[in-house]
Amino acid sequence: MHEIAGADFILAIGTNTTETHPVLSLQVRKAVKEGAKLVVADPRRIELADIAETHIQHKSGSDLALLNAMANVIIEEGLWNREFVEQRTEDFEALSQAVKDCTPEWAAETTGVSAETIRETARAYAGAEKASILYTMGITQHICGTDNVLAIANLALLTGQIGRENTGVNPLRGQNNVQGACDMGALPNVYPGYQAVNNPDMQQKFEKAWGVELSPKAGLVVGEMMDAAYAGTLKGLFVIGENPLMSDPDSNHVIQAMDKIDFLVVQDLFLTETAEKADVILPAASFAEKNGTFTNTERRVQRVRKAVEPIGDSKPDWEILVMLSNAMGYPMQYGSPGDIMKEINAVTPQYGGITFERLEKQGLQWPCPDVDHPGTKFLHKDKFARGKGKFHAVSHVDPDEVPDEEYPYVLTTGRRLFHYHTGSMSRRAKGLAEAYPEEYLEVNPKDALKLEVETGGKVRVASRRGEIEIPIRVTERIQPGLVFASFHFRETWLNKLTNDARDPIAKIPEFKVSAVKIEKVV
Amino acid sequence: MDNLMVACCSKCNHSLSNPCKDYILCRTEGPICHDSKECKEKRETFIGKVDLAEDKPHRRVLICAGTGCISSGSKDVHSEMLAAVENAGIEDCEVTITGCHGFCEQGPIVIIEPEGIFYGGVSADDVEEIVEKQLKDGEIVERLLFTEPNSGEKDKYYRDIMFYKKQERTVLKNCGHINPEKIEEYIIAGGYRGLLRTLCDFKALEVIEQVKTSGLRGRGGAGFPTGLKWQFTAQAEGDQKYVVCNADEGDPGAFMDRSVLEGNPHAVIEGMLIAGYAVGASEGYVYVRAEYPLAIKRLQKAITQAEQFGILGDNILDSGFSFRLKIKAGAGAFVCGEETALLNSIEGERGMPRVRPPFPANKGLWQKPTLLNNVETYANVPIIMEKGGEWYASRGTEKSKGTKVFALTGKVNNTGLAEVPMGISMREIIFDIGGGINNGKKFKAVQIGGPSGGCLPEDKLDLPVDYDSLISAGAMMGSGGLVVMDETTCMVDLARFFLTFTQNESCGKCTPCREGTKRMLEILTRITEGEGQEGDIETLERMAKSVKNTSLCGLGQTAPNPILSTLRYFRDEYEAHIKKKWCPAGVCTALTTFKIDPEKCTGCRRCAKNCPVEAIKGEVKGIHEIDPEICTKCGTCMEKCKFEAVYKG
Amino acid sequence: MSEVTITIDGQEVTVPAGTTVLQAARMAGIEIPTLCHDPELTSPGACRLCVVEIEGMRNLPASCVTTAGDGMVVNTISPDVMDARKTVIELLLANHPEDCLTCERTGQCRLQEYAYHYGVRGDVFHGDRTEFPIDDSNPFIVRDLNKCIRCGKCVRVCDEVQGRSIYSFAYRGFDSIPATAMDESLAESECVFCGSCVSVCPTGALTEKMMHGVGRSWELEKIKTTCPYCGVGCNFDLNVKDGKVVGVTSNAESEVNGRALCVKGRFGYNFIDHPDRLTKPLIKKDGEFQEATWEEAINLVAEKFTQIKQEHGGDALALFSSARCTNEENYLANKFCRAVLGTNNIDHCARL
To answer: Which residue of C has its CA nearest to B543?
Structure first.
């Protein structure tokens, strides 16, 4: 993470870093202060754009066109790193063919960004000594999210801006332990350590470790679970520390699905919107009331330490899981999270050497296969996980929903500095709630004029899936035709509007583009 | 030819893109590259018209257009003179403006050449008489001549005036004699010869050697050896270096830098060019306070002209050396005269001093090696390079070479700028050049070096004035402000006055200066208000020592000097204020009572009639008395009494 | 890198070239007091508390900005140095409220500590004091300029670490203050309340509003942990008193973030004991939640899940795990789902 500060060129695309990862944004600021060139690509004029040399304000959902056009320039102008491409990558031809027609002029139309800006950015990226790309959900929350990420990887491979200090492709994880949850197998297709459930060897390994028979069939992702519930095939659901009612797209659909579930168990700190639907609620302990580890966006495993006793009769999630497992006839015997970590060490190669004893002093970045391993600062140094870096021919597709006469505006969603996720924690944190009490919709002055609404005035926003009322704030930071708000607030339940169309591979919903209509509330 | 700097004929091919190394000499002694009688005549005619040598018969009327004379009306004198000369049909008489003569209290000053007649206090109404008598008939206008304060005699000629007689004008030589808005006058007067010699005959290191040999020390205050500073900057590593001129003249009463910029701006440009060549800089800044609009205007004009003729810019005089100069107007904070605060200010930051080291020579403007000297220092450089370091070093004392300009002010008869050789005694400056104390009062002390300096009492008057002797006497050269005080000055009040200035000007960065000057000022104020306490002197001494020892920059380190030196020489006055509740000089009103001497009072009632608060009682022809309860100590009674019966006690 | 050897208070110390006298002294275990110095920020050399005597140097240089030179002889405890330090403290106290009894910073205040250590009383000067209204216009930071000693750490941390430059010195001399643009309140400024300035302030000029009155510094137990908000993984100290989390403070030892935090990390903690917290298992009966014992709740869940598994197979069950849970808990959730519920239907909110 401190590496970012050493880059001399940074492309921040689809990441509102100063609000979503404030402390990481300090590294970007530091780099800029020390002379790095920063290019921000975001449909909104986010705060980071204020310190950027260039702000590419492309249309929401046009990232792929932009990235491919950059690849086009790098190849056409011979700016690519021949040595790196030859030695470390494969399928260059495929990419070369795919982006052949993606000229900056072509992309200018799709993205709304001038061909010259695209050219200059491509040249600067390729020409930089140490260039780094940062992205978050502005890239992934599209139906072409996977392709977007591959297009970014293409650029890094083309120019060799990867595997060296201060370079690389840096996806920033949104929540405290998203990385850890993925590492620990809270995914339908992999066991801990990304060991595939449909790989017989892995299946066998875990069957042996856990002493039970396991299914080789990949499970359902969140959205598919909702569809299954809606269809009536999913009967029982156990929700731990999540609030899908508010966080998932097309909330009305989620609500209907939840209503159809026979038995819903919610384990949480608060009576969330989802918990209200539960049959049983299990009170969980907060981070301050338990021991354990979190893994941050740079794969650094760090300690969480118990500072106070769990409030009331609440219990840490792990204790509840142990109780439940025992009650269901599968004995679990762990005296502490440290005991669980020992089991993790044994079955998760990347975590092999990450013990509580070592973490007492400092965090460790995985892969850390054994107790003598110092951890790994950056990946892909000499070699990619799969051997050679593969170029992927990807091409631009329009978002699932494009504005039309009836729904002329594009709604894009995100987060605010003062709040977190569905607000269950941050809205109960006194100062935060006071400093940012309610949400508003960002509207361009031109649109505000059309809608005849001023800052503070209320509008009704409707999509094909639902509608909400929300006050607006008129701001130049957003382009005409685009509106923005966060999903933190129940009062302005944004996900009632969003589209649950998903990327076919990563299954990430397209939160960043929904067609909506807006009218003034009188 | 209406401009000396233009080509004589098509054979001259000097231009900005194709510079000629002989350009400067060519304009006065040329043409050099070809032999042409016609061309030579062109040059000589032009030079003849404006030649400054006094034996040339050409008639000129020089009207001072320094800030002082302008404020006393010299612009009107100038326009009136132009019209009058034309109306009178006088031919071959040039009316022109000049920079400051440094004798501003005599302004507006008009000099008639070739004779060198000095007229002071000239108003627009006097112009006709000057034209009619002086210019037409050669008859001197007696009433406008300067009267010597001591002898009462009138001086006809500039050269006879005592104020100038003991001066050795080097830096100020051209001030008052050339039109500062014309580059050719500077060149005719011998300007840019130092630069020429530098570029033709010296390598950068040799220039530094010359400056070191000259013994020149910084004229801005601390007296750091200039050559050494140049050497440090030259040796510092950096892809870009800067030469900066400190023209943030801020000491109360000091105006020598302004005079040089207004009267001889090219000398500063020339000095900076030579410095740039020596240290390897290609860019320079002159930091001038915005309160000097005329200096900025003249300097800007000079820069523009130098650029037009290829003396500033790329490949100057075909030497391969390039240099550009910019002016940065400062907002007038005293602390910006401190070199690192000045650099911050140029960079657009708040004018607060930086920690030294690193010194600007290594990390200055934008962290690049930077040479910083003040106006007077740079103005000394051309003559060093023209005549050589050894020539320069032949004047002055062992460790202080050359001349120094002082701004003489206070209770002396002649106030103004005096450029004198180092080592001259203070007595000569005050009593010969300054004409002694006015109104026949007794000399008490002289404050030297402004608010950062100290005072010298009578018994130090014969001290030779140079950097080191002043320091050992508890004062400092500073920028050269001299404030002369007579017996009516209270030394505690004086210290309070200077401390008020430094306290106001403290930037607030370091604790001792920010808080310490405030507390010292509070104590001084208390003493002058009659609230002095036992122990105040000791507290002041302790504070002064700490503030001096621990402050971050020169402003704080020198701020206690006025206190320390007044305590050193006039401790009894402090004690009188504190213990006897008495102000010996009768300045501190809270410690003063006005009394009427019954022996002298004639009962004229003049005092009582003029008293604004009716504090004086007494019958006509009876003895009067002042009621101290009512008296506001305004001093009107004392002023109005014709019999000197009112006194302070 | 070359080394230099200097003598400090008679003790020879060899340090790398470029080390400051202050650093060298600290390496040798010699304590020199500082107020404006901070190892993570540039040194302005402004407070002048760290002055020392160095042979051959005029005046008393500030050790924090003086580079150790080979052969240098430094005295950190000479009478002149002690006098100078006392004077600096006296001067600071002369314009500082003496309300240590109620000041939030008591016990952690550097000025208080040094005044005590050097035996300086606040009554040496009786002159003007600056008077500023207290800025508590926002929920997070109380700014009491009356307690400000102009060390400028807030100015520098905001500029050098946070890159925001909310503060800059304004006005001159005795009236100078670190001010926001146009000298407005923090609430009106562009401040995002990361609280870095609070974490470096040596006195009570900047304090955490929510920590006012909750406990004296020496009563607070500090437990280092990892932030529960975004994925950056900042570490900080939970401040605990009487079994309650009463505040968050920076921990300079944090690998990822040092002392930097954002508004959520530093000020977003009091959801922990919010009255809305669920404290008992709840079972819905006739549409209403009723409190239950753990045994009742666990048995009911076990029974229902077992029943669904038996009737419809494991794939009729699913588990949402959480990015807010620990690794150990996610591991158990994964194990529970696959081994106990018998399905791979496990996911979490990574995509949201």
So the answer is: C87
Residue C19: inside a domain: yes
Nearest beta carbon to residue A271 from set C273, C278, C301 = C278
Q: How many domains does chain C have?
A: 4
C59 with B546: Cβ contact below 8 A: no
pLDDT in tens, B364-374: 999 999 999 99
| Structure tokens, A104 | 């900056």
**Chain B residue whose CA is closest to C91:** B515
Q: Which of C213, C232, C251 is the last residue of a domain?
A: C213
Residue C341 lies in a domain: yes
Chain C contacts of B510, Cβ < 8 Å?
45-48
What is the average pLDDT across C66-83?
94
Closest chain C residue to the Cα of A307, Cα to Cα: C223
Using CA atoms, how far apart are residues A440 and A423, in angstroms rounded to an integer? 15
Count the alpha carbons within 13 Å of B630 in the hemisphere toward its beta carbon.
Answer: 11
**Residues of chain C contacting residue B476, judged by C-beta atoms under 8 Å apart:** none
Q: Residue B452 contacts by C-beta under 8 Å, 6 or more apart in sequence? A: B221, B251, B476, B478, B502, B554, B555, B558, B559, B561
Q: What are the phi and psi torsion angles at B170 (to 5°)?
A: -115, -60
Mind telling me how many Å the CA of B220 is from chain C's nearest CA?
20
Domain residues for the domain of B599 are 593-648
Please tell me whether residues B471 and B535 are part of one structural domain: no
Residue B569 confidence (pLDDT): 95
For residue C139, the enclosing domain spans 103-109+116-213
Nearest to A270 among C278, C283, C319 (CB): C278
- B454: closest CA of chain C, how far (Å): 18
Q: Are residues C170 and C233 in the same domain?
A: no
Domain boundary at C192, C213, C234, which?
C213
Highest mean pLDDT among A159-168, B36-45, B486-495: B486-495
pLDDT in tens, C97-145: 989 999 999 999 999 999 999 999 877 888 999 999 999 999 999 999 9
Runs of H (alpha helix) within B106-179: 127-129, 162-165
Q: How many domains does chain B contain in total? A: 6
Task: Report yes or no: C168 at the B interface, CB cutoff 8 Å.
Answer: yes
Supply the ipTM of this predicted assembly. 0.91
Name the residue among C304, C330, C341 with its Cβ closest to that of A263. Answer: C304
Cis, bond preceding C39 (omega within 30 deg of 0): no
C336 vs A220, A296, A321: nearest CB: A321
Within a domain: residue B132?
Answer: yes
Q: Which of B352, B471, B515 to mutate to test the interface with C (most CBs of C within 10 A)?
A: B515
Q: Is A361 on the interface with C (CB under 8 A)?
A: no
Res C46: pLDDT: 95
**Residue B476 in tokens:** 């400092």
- Cβ atoms of B596 and B645 within 8 Å: the answer is yes
Looking at residue A279, its amino acid is D
| pLDDT for the residue B58 | 75
